[in-house]
Write a structure and sequence with these properties.
Helix content is 37%, strand content 11%. By secondary structure, the protein is α/β, with parallel strands linked by helices. The chain folds into 2 domains: 3-219, no CATH class; 226-362, no CATH class. An 8-stranded mixed β-sheet has the order 3-2-4-5-6-7-1-8. The chain is globular and about 75 Å long.
Length: 364
């Protein structure tokens, strides 16, 4: 049974109060959170071990400068857990990294919330997030989809993970009465002496009914907007033909953790003898080479790994809807294997297991 705290404050203040209590009581080593770094509205992730810097924290903020799951996967264990305040897709990304032995759940006290979506990075660079922030929260409280958020956010239905240590209900809620749910024994133990109204109560997912319905429809539209009128090689060339080979989508993806990606290795460097051979056969080559092969390789990996954070589309200089394509591919995999990336740390990755009943047509 979860414990619920009703804090008669806005979510940002309530989360800061919890983190300050945990830090002052020595229960955690530090706080990992979004913070604002200057008057122009620049935002980054910071690790804070001194409460005097809490004024800079903006823990519940609709922006994702990087996927926090990628950062947290690189943390080495500290003496005590770190309170990590992250978006749901960042939490799910970290779970997938844990499955791949790239992180440990025990290192962190995870705090997340029902997410209204995040703005593209460019919107913050242009100063538009601050202009639209009030309207954003008003829309979230009405259980509606905010304008100008990332396209993948509009179609995301995994917005309220209940397996996080601490969950904050934001969508459809009164902004001045923050409802906080302590879902794990770890959270309940660490906050046992925290002041506030506490009682046994589970989060009611019914409050998300309307927003999930709207997001499902938005997700369908997202798939329709991807032009798949041509299939096969020609269709792939049409979709990925604009790629300049920067591999930015690979660099920001939280699931791509290899120290050296095969696509960045010498295996895909320009090789004169190979190029000459291909030129003899084809008479012309696209440069840089292997951009289509790169995306096919990524698709094969991300179909069972993508958490829909949208970072890849956000950084693509050629405006390829990479995240939308991965989302559509991932949905097909999820349906086939009844698997959702980041849903459960104990849920095995489909490509790493084999069940005989999955392929009865192969015979005994």
């Amino acid at each position: 049974m979860s414990e619920q705290i009703v804090n008669h404050k806005i979510a940002d203040t309530a989360v800061k109060d919890i983190c300050k209590f945990l830090l002052d009581s020595g229960e955690i080593s530090g706080v990992f959170s979004l913070r604002i770094t200057n008057k122009k509205g620049s935002v980054d992730y910071g690790l804070i071990t001194d409460a005097q810097y809490f004024d800079d924290l903006i823990p519940i903020y609709p922006l994702m400068p990087v996927n926090a799951g990628q950062i947290l996967g690189r943390f080495t264990p500290m003496k005590k857990p770190i309170a990590a305040i992250v978006h749901p897709c960042e939490f799910r990304a970290f779970i997938e990294l844990v499955k791949r032995e790239q992180g440990q759940m025990d290192n962190f006290l995870f705090i997340t919330y029902s997410c209204g979506g995040v703005f593209p990075i460019k919107e913050n660079a242009l100063g538009n997030v601050q202009k639209n922030i009030n309207q954003y929260w008003q829309t979230v409280q009405k259980s509606e989809i905010p304008d100008k958020i990332r396209p993948t956010c509009k179609g995301c239905e995994h917005i309220a993970p209940q397996n996080a240590d601490i969950f904050i209900s934001l969508i459809g809620e009164d902004a001045d009465n923050c409802k906080i749910y302590l879902n794990t024994e770890k959270a309940q133990k660490l906050l046992n002496k925290f002041e506030g109204r506490k009682f046994d109560k589970e989060f009611d997912p019914g409050i998300l009914k309307e927003i999930l319905k709207a997001r499902k429809e938005a997700g369908k539209k997202l798939s329709v907007d991807i032009d798949t009128s041509q299939t096969g090689l020609n269709g792939l060339i049409d979709i990925f033909g604009k790629c300049i080979g920067c591999h930015g989508c690979n660099a920001v993806c939280p699931i791509c953790y290899c120290t050296l990606c095969d696509f960045d290795s010498l295996n895909y460097d320009y090789n004169t003898s190979i190029l000459e051979k291909e030129l003899e056969q084809k008479g012309a080559l696209r440069l840089p080479p292997d951009t289509l092969f790169f995306h096919l390789g990524r698709l094969s990996h991300m179909s069972f790994s993508c958490v829909g954070c949208g970072q890849c589309s956000d950084v693509c200089p050629a405006s390829i809807p990479v995240a939308s394509i991965f989302k559509r591919t991932g949905e097909n995999t999820a349906e086939m294997f009844d698997f959702v990336p980041g849903r459960d740390v104990n849920e095995k990755i489909p490509v790493m297991i084999y069940k005989e009943e999955e392929f009865p047509e192969l015979g005994e």
